[in-house]
Amino acid sequence: MTKGILINYDYCTGCHSCEVACKKELGLPKGEFGIKLTETGPYEYSEKEGSSPKERWEWTWLPVVTKACDMCAERTESGKMPMCVQHCQAWCMYYGEAEDLVKKMDGGSRWALFTR
Ligand code: SF4
Ligand code: SF4
């Protein structure tokens, strides 16, 4: 079965906790990451008629899982959550079977699914 990490990035605050927790778990040196936060914006779209202020502004954080990620194999094999998921300050990260994670995507907010 394919395991994955699902992120509801509408709720990511850009706190970097997942990044730091992962670096500690993998023992990575400066400049290397198992998950790396990206930032888009802030910028304003040309005004669209009837759009709310929230829809006009882009300012998005999204952590991207890198090649160094092993899905916290040791931890998850013993029933623990991956470090990044456990330390997410906004509780917007999930770990599990990709098939089950897909079912969480409700169409109401923005999601990213990383698998391996
Ligand atoms: S699952 Fe583990 S190795 Fe992968 S990004 Fe999260 S903390 Fe890092
Ligand atoms: S820990 Fe959660 S809220 Fe913080 S940057 Fe990572 S995904 Fe976003």
List keywords for this structure.
116 residues; alpha+beta; Alpha-Beta Plaits; two-stranded antiparallel ribbon; 5 helices; 30% strand; binds iron/sulfur cluster
Task: Give a written overview of the molecule.
The chain is of the alpha+beta class and 116 residues long. The protein has one domain (3-115): Alpha-Beta Plaits, CATH 3.30.70. It is 27% helix and 30% strand. The protein has 5 helices and 5 strands, in the order E-H-E-H-E-H-H-E-H-E. The protein has helices at residues 17-26, 53-56, 73-77, 83-87, 98-104; strands spanning 3-8, 35-44, 57-65, 93-97, 111-115. Strands 4-1-5 form a 3-stranded antiparallel sheet. The protein has a two-stranded antiparallel ribbon with strand order 2-3. The structure holds iron/sulfur cluster (2 copies). The site of one iron/sulfur cluster (SF4) has 16 residues, from helix 1 and strand 3.
In short:
This protein is an alpha+beta fold and 116 residues long.
Helices and strands, with pairings:
Blueprint (H helix, E strand, L loop, with lengths): L2 E6 L8 H10 L8 E10 L8 H4 E9 L7 H5 L5 H5 L5 E5 H7 L6 E5 L1
Antiparallel strand pairs: 1-4, 1-5, 2-3
The site of one iron/sulfur cluster has 14 residues, from helix 1 and helix 4.
